[in-house]
Each structure stands twice: as C-alpha cells, then as structure tokens.
Amino acid sequence: MARRVSRRARPARPARPLLRACALVLLACAGTSAAANPLPLVDTSHRGTIYDLAYDGQRRLLFSAGEDGTVRIWSHDRRTIVRHLRLGAVRVLRIALHPDRPLLAAVARSTGGDDLLEVWDWQSARRLYRHRLDTAPLHVGFTSLGASLVYSRAQFDSVVFLEPATGEHQERLPAAFGIVSYVATSTNERTLMTYQPTGEIRYWDAATLAVKGVVPTLPGLESIALSADKNLLVARSGDDMVAIDVVTGTVRSRLAVSRQARVAVADQFAGLGVLQPDEREDHVFVLQRHTLDRALTPRTEYRLYLDETPTAAAYAGRTLFFAADGAIWEAHQAGADPFVRDELVVPEALAADGDTLLVATRRRIAVARLQRSAATLVPGYAPLTAATSLPRLAAASVLRNPFGTAIGMTVVPTPASSPPPPVAGLLLPDTLQQQPGNGAVLVWNRDGTSGRLGTLDPRSGRYRMRISGFAAPLSQVSVVGDRLLLLDGLGNITLYPVSEVLTASGIPAPDPVGAFWAPGTSKVVSFGDHLIAGRTSTSDLTTPLLKIDATHAETLLIPDDALLIYDMAQHANGQLLTLGVEPPPDGAARGRMRTVLRMREGNDLARQRVVHGFTGEDLSAALVEAPDRQRVYSTLGADAVRVWDGTRLQELERTDRQPRELVVAGDLLVARNSDATFTVWNRFTRSLMFHFYLFRDFNWIVVRPNGEYFHSPGADRYLAQPSRQVRDE
Question: What residues have CB less than 8 Å from 558, skipping those under 6 apart?
Fold first, then answer.
C-alpha cells in the first residue's frame, strides 16, 4: 500500500519546548568556540528552489544546487552536510560532476541576467575559473574518463571542450557544423556522440575528428540522458518520455508524462524514475519507478503528499532523491522521507528600536536585544573596533504574530532626549538585558482583502488593534515627525497624528490630517513640506516621481528616466536617493534593463546623478536610513552593502552572502540575506561583526569571521562537525 508522507514530517529531530528553545542568549559562557578554520557547517537545506541534484557514487555524496547561490554537499550515509559552496549573487541552475576528481561544473545566472559557467574544486571549496557565456548552455557535462568538460550552445559553432581544471580550450570536434544539444563519449572516449535538434545522432572518431556515422531520429528532443549501458537515449519529446536506440535511432519505448514531471535516469542500472502530479487530487504526486525496456512498465508506484511541485530528481544507486520547496526527499520501497530540510525561519519583516531587533515570521515575532557598545552612548566617543566590540545577542522573547500572516513592522522611536543609560564595558546590566526597546511597535497585515494597523508591546506580547477598515492591506507605515504616513496597496496615502493612532481603539478611527491618491505607488517619503511618491511609469507622458504638497494637495511631476521607482530614502543634507529600474541606454543590448541608485538635490530635485548602477533588474534591493539620516545604506547589486554619506559611496566589508533587506539597530547594521541568514556590521567602522542563523524553533547560531561560533543550548543539533576533507567511503 502506498505511503503518504507530509513534507512537515521530521522524524529525525525531536521537537523541543518553544519557550525553552527560543531564548536568544549569547554570552561567552553559553557558547561553543571553534578553531579559526574551517568555519562551522550549519546543517540546513537551501532557501528557495533547488534546481538540480547530482550524485557521486564513489564517495556516496549528494550535491544540490539552488536559487540561493549555493551548492551543498551531503553525506548519504550520515545524512548531514559536509561542504557548503557559496557561488555568490547567482542562481545555480545545473551542476555536473567529474567522474574521478573532486571537480564540479556549475551553470549559473547572475542577478544581472548573465549566464556563467564555473568550475570548483569542491573538496577545497575553491573556484578554479569562471567563463561568461553568451547564452545559457544547452548541455554541460564531463566526458566518460573526465578528460574534458564539454558544453554546447545555440549557435552554429555549438560545441566547446575545455580542460577540466584550467578551462583552456581543447580541439576535439570540427568547428561550425550546427547546433548540438547533447554530447557523450564512449567508455574509453575514443568515440564521440552528438545529438542535433534537427533529429540527427552523429558519431565521431575522437582521434581523426572524422564522422563515423549519422543516425536519423526524432527531432526536438529535450532533457536528454544516456542509459547506464549507453544503449538508449532517454529524453522528453513533447508530452512523452522516449527511450531511443542509439544505434538505429528508433523509439524503443514511450511514456506519457506531464510538463510538471521530474525524471531521473539511473546510471548504475536500467532504471527510470518519474514523479508527477496526480490530476485527481491537489498536492498529491505519483512516484513511479520504471525499467528501461520496450514497455517502460512501472515496477513500483507510490502516492506522496507535497506542498510544492518537485523541481529536481536524481538517482543514488537504487535510491531516488527529489527536491521540493527547499527540501530534499529520499524515496524508498515504502514511500519517501525527508533527507534534509530548510530549517531557518522565513522572515516576513525586520524592525529595530535602538539595539532591539524584531524578526517576524508568519506565526511568531522574535525580539532580540543586540549588545550595544559604549560608543553610541558617550558623546564624542570613537566607535569601538570590530576586534573589541563584538555585539552579543542578549535576552529575548518570542511573541505570537497577531495576524498569522505576512506582516510589516515599524517602530515609533523614543525621543532622542531620553537615551538608554550608559553602560560599562560590553555587557548591559541585567535589568536592561531583560528589556526590549522603549518605542511603540506598529504592526500591520500585508495579505488579505482589507488593512488593519495595531500596536504590539514587545515586553508582554499584548496586541491592540488601532485602525481597521483600510480599503487594502498596508504596504508602508512610516513615522514622519509627529505624523504617521500610511500607504495601502491601492495607492491611498494617508497621514494621521502619531499620538492619536497610539491611543485609538479601532472604531471610530481618528480623522486623518491628509489623504491623497497615487495609483501604482511603491514608496512614499517626506521631503520638507512635501511628500515624494515613487511609483510605476505607465507611459511616456508620465514619470515615476510625484511631488505632493501635503498642505494644499497639489501635485507636481518630477521628470525621471526610470520605468519604476520602488524604494527611496532621504539624507539629512536635503538629498533624495531613489532605487529605480531604467531602460538600457542608447546603443546597449536590447532587453537589458538597469537598476540605478540615483541622488537628487536642489529646488524641485532638479540636480541629479547616478551614484551606483547595476545591469539588470534588482527589485529585491533596498535602502535604509540611519536614525539621524547622516548615512543611507543600499543593497543594490546583491554583492555588497554600500553607504552614502552625502558626498561619496563606500562599501561595507564584503561577505559571501547576498544582502537584501536592511535595518539599523543602534550602531549596528543588520542585513537579511537571500539565504535567510543575517549579517551584522559595525556601521561606523564598516567592518563585519558576525553572521547569525535563526531556526524555525527559534534556536540560533552566531559565527564570527574568524570561525569562532556560539549557539543557544538547543542549536547544537543544527551543527555538522567541521571536516577538513571528505574521505572516500
């Protein structure tokens, strides 16, 4: 009988009581310190889509490639991570393994849309070389003995052979004989086989480069693989999987599959695995194992429940692995079990009040006290260096998300005239360690049919609804002096007195002091006596920047080349910084948009210049202002965080993560990265302080740049033992 397994099942790791596991307490005596090299390995899967899986049978290692820019290597026997390769601000779409050496080829696409081919020594976690490609490759793989790395592209001079370790070009086929979408070699590499989409299989003598034979077959084959005995080409042909005799070109068997099906061909036996949705029931998938013969009759069939459609599959001996929604599953005779899962929280929003950091998920809100250094508390005191001011996560709590869905958060800051009391050294007094920030935390729902706004007390977790009945969920809530600026999904901009909102009881709502409508608006900022709205430009006659007189409700269009402005920030010297997507400049490649960080100043913001540009659409980049607006931070480009001080743009210390959302917490800058980790810098010295991981059960791990790490009492189960090398098993 088929076994139904929920994605939420997690038999290998028993749950712990939430309140015991949630305390984010990082003191030197509560942590585990590691050697400076190597860095600790955190045992969690990818964030986002897993695009490809590959298996090294000699070492019994499973490789996975993901949307988060990483390749992760897993021990099949120990069921834990053994290597973590960070390729950068890219999506890793396809991987191939050398048959003997620890070499991995990865096809990736950068955030700017560039197609890349990288080769790594995965054992030493070293990139050997990177080639920028004109188009996405049709095929990538190593030859049978590993003498070459070969890829093909959609052009007449299609096939390229490279020396695997150096990337130098090899001459192994004649140039310019047509587009090739698949290349293979015989076991001894004396014969080369190519498939052309026109429907031809060609055989070449590797020594003479002469054609040995041409075999006609089906045209337009996709997702091609070779059977274990090298007698069959297994490929997708329209809505069918076909097995084609490589000698005669005839179809020996055919199997109807859906476009959502994920297929794996075994490399050690005549096997084919197919996982596809059941048309009769949502979230149910049918897993079939077939023998590669004339009938392709399934030997076994299981029905599995999955929240997401599978994205990749691979055989490991006779075990079938498949990936879905950041998790990897292992199929066996009785059904399927989770092999690895994404254990990190899914942050919906970040906010900070001084050195209190709030991280919201759809169910919980973690409130953590980041250690404040003495530098920000004593006027004129120079910021401490990274070596002496390691911030420490002090006491915290976990609160219930009052909406149970995606939310936004912002903090009404405490007055500057009443700062927290000074501290001695690096540790806060116990009375302060237990206290979150003093500002009011405003929370609102981002999902649903209407909007609501309330306040949350971080100390008690008490939520009170303040205003309800907005025409659409709110997309922005900002404090502008003594007013609260609200923007909903329909473009309604409303101003309320902050004091009245904080004491409102929901019905009736306080009267607004201003109301405007600007459809398509993404972000609104206060600029002097005016509001500036960044929005979508729908025609050549409009502009994405709109200036609104908050007193007389008059509007003025500000010329701008962007098609869309989606984030803005203001510097204290009167500059407006915008993030926007612009069409390519004249003469540039068509279809390649630019995302630019533009600075404007002067009357009607007429003076402007681009201070940072990025080729491509980087719509997840963000801006954030320091509380005094003397610095504006940007994540444009996903390769670094940059800071604008009013005159120049500088980089913070680079990391191997992709920073996205930013929040200022005291003298620290916190970034939520694309892989759901967090990175913390000293924003005055621009030095990297640490990375930290927050897990679904609200345990945590903090890792310093030198490899030292600390963790909550229950987080040791997420740590894989660092290993200097992967031994053959």
Answer: 532, 543, 545, 546, 547, 604, 605
